[in-house]
């Protein structure tokens, strides 16, 4: 055997890490403060798309508009769950990892904190002049009097034979620990809201109402522990909706204020009360909050079929196409029309003005000159009886419908209809009448039992981090020496917090003044 082989054989072999070793390494890494901060940053970063991309639970109309205007982009958004950020798989994974990391941080920190509270300040060193802060003065001050003066300054004091040891600033560790506990409390409050809370969206047209039942929601997202009986039994009716717009200047057309005048019944037996719902003034009924999150126009149409019967009459909520002018696309469906079902594509212009090319457009978002432009009329099967879900903003597939001539887009565009006007359909198919204009609002109804606890824990976190950053851990040592020419007192001090020595110098000077009160020759 060669020398190299012999040395290689005798060399100590590194032990295999093993499964247990990897698990311990993973747990230490997950529960480290660095990992917790990284996860907290990722959680904040993951919340950004939830603010920039419309969420299905809050703005379903904007989500529908993205699907209509850019289907490819909408598909990618949906693939990465960007329309439902706060309920997505990846957001929940970061949330749970942060939750676990905080628990792993808090448990050892709590044990350390308890030990620190029980630990007494150490005995004073023999040579206090070696400490960062030192002073000495002649005095007959005794140990007990020195301890009393330091206790008056709110120090924790320990005495010995000719020495006094004092420590202060334990609230720094208290703030640090409570900050982490508050973060954990915020996560628990959010979890409680997800389990026991619910939220939903509903569109309400002027003159219509809403009762807080599952069937009345357009979109309903309950927590896993919520049942239909958990909903607060209130109801409301939209009496009127007003929007104030800027009428002049560079910001002409900008919305200034939204006000929805509601009639609210807090319970089935309660009398109705008036309430003005605004964007920043939600309606609250026993912890359930109702927010105003959107608005638009709902023109009223009347459809008469080929047999002279009224096949449809009512307000039709329209999908906003241009927010600046509130130009909206409308779809009217008359499934009861005879001999064939009727469908219409229309464009609502709140303030209609003629253009030089003979077309019409809206010049202002307010309803100053409302008109409806008929884009196309169709007959055939609307597909409402097929059992397949269908958007109220879309007609049936083209193969099921036939365009009525000469209302084919590009061949002849009739003059827009003003309120009270009607247009006769070709081939004796019937008549469409524009009756008037109403407005619609979208509401978000939410019950979140973790809302107030989250607010309390957030306030606690702010106070705790302030304590952690502002308070310094510091120690003061005093040695009382007797001599033939009188006594001498040596005072030394140091901080246990990095970067706070400069701030402690002034406080140390004040401590020396208190201890040497009435004495002379302080140096």
From TrEMBL:
Keywords: Cytochrome c-type biogenesis, Membrane, Transmembrane, Transmembrane helix. GO terms for biological process: cytochrome complex assembly. Residues 33-508 form the ResB-like domain. The chain crosses the membrane at residues 36-53, 90-111, 177-198, 452-471. Pfam families: ResB. It is found in: Membrane. One of its GO terms (cellular component) is membrane. It is a multi-pass membrane protein. This is Cytochrome c biogenesis protein ResB. The lineage of its organism: Bacteria, Bacillati, Actinomycetota, Actinomycetes, Streptosporangiales.
């Amino acid at each position: 055997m060669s020398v190299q082989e012999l040395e290689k054989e005798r060399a100590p072999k590194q032990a295999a890490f093993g499964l247990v070793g990897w698990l311990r390494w993973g747990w230490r890494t997950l529960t480290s403060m660095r990992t917790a901060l990284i996860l907290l940053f990722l959680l904040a970063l993951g919340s950004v798309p939830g603010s920039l991309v419309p969420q299905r639970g809050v703005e379903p109309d904007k989500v529908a508009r993205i699907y209509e205007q850019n289907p490819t982009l909408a598909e990618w958004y949906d693939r990465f769950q960007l329309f439902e950020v706060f309920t997505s798989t990846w957001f929940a994974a970061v949330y749970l990892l942060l939750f676990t990391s905080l628990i792993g941080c808090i448990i050892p920190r709590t044990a350390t904190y308890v030990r620190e509270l029980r630990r007494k300040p150490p005995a004073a060193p023999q040579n206090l002049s070696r400490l960062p802060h030192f002073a000495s003065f002649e005095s007959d001050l005794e140990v007990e009097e020195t301890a009393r003066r330091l206790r008056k300054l709110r120090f924790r004091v320990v005495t010995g034979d000719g020495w006094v040891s004092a420590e202060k600033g334990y609230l720094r560790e208290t703030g640090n620990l409570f900050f982490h506990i508050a973060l954990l409390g915020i996560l628990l409050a959010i979890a409680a809201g997800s389990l026991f809370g619910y939220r939903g969206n509903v569109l309400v047209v002027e003159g219509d109402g809403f009762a807080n039942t599952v069937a009345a929601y357009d979109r309903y997202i309950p927590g896993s522990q919520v049942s239909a009986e958990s909903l607060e039994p209130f109801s409301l009716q939209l009496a009127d909706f007003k929007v104030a717009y800027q009428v002049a200047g560079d910001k002409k057309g900008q919305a200034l204020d939204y006000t929805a005048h509601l009639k609210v019944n807090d319970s089935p037996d309660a009398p109705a009360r008036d309430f003005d719902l605004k964007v920043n003034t939600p309606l609250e009924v026993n912890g359930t909050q109702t927010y105003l999150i959107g608005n638009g126009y709902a023109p009223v149409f009347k459809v008469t079929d080929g047999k002279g019967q009224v096949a449809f009459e009512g307000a039709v909520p329209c999908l906003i196409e241009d927010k600046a002018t509130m130009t909206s696309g409308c779809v009217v469906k008359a499934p009861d029309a005879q001999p064939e079902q009727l469908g219409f594509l229309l464009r609502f212009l709140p303030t209609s003005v003629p253009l030089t090319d003979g077309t019409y457009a809206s010049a202002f978002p307010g309803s100053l000159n409302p008109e409806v432009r008929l884009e196309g009329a169709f007959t055939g099967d609307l597909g409402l009886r097929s059992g397949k879900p269908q958007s109220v903003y879309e007609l049936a597939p083209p193969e099921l419908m036939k365009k009525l001539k000469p209302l084919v887009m590009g061949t002849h565009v009739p003059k827009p209809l003003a309120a009270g006007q009607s247009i006769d359909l070709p081939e004796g198919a019937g008549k469409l009448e524009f009756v008037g204009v109403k407005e619609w609002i979208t509401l978000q109804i939410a019950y979140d039992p973790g809302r107030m606890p989250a607010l309390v824990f957030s306030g606690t976190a702010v106070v705790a981090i302030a304590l952690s950053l502002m308070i310094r851990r510091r120690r003061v040592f005093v040695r009382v020496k007797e001599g033939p020419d009188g006594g001498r007192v040596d005072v030394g001090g140091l901080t246990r917090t990095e970067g706070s020595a400069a701030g402690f110098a002034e406080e140390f000077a004040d401590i020396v003044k208190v201890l040497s009160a009435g004495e002379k020759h302080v140096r």
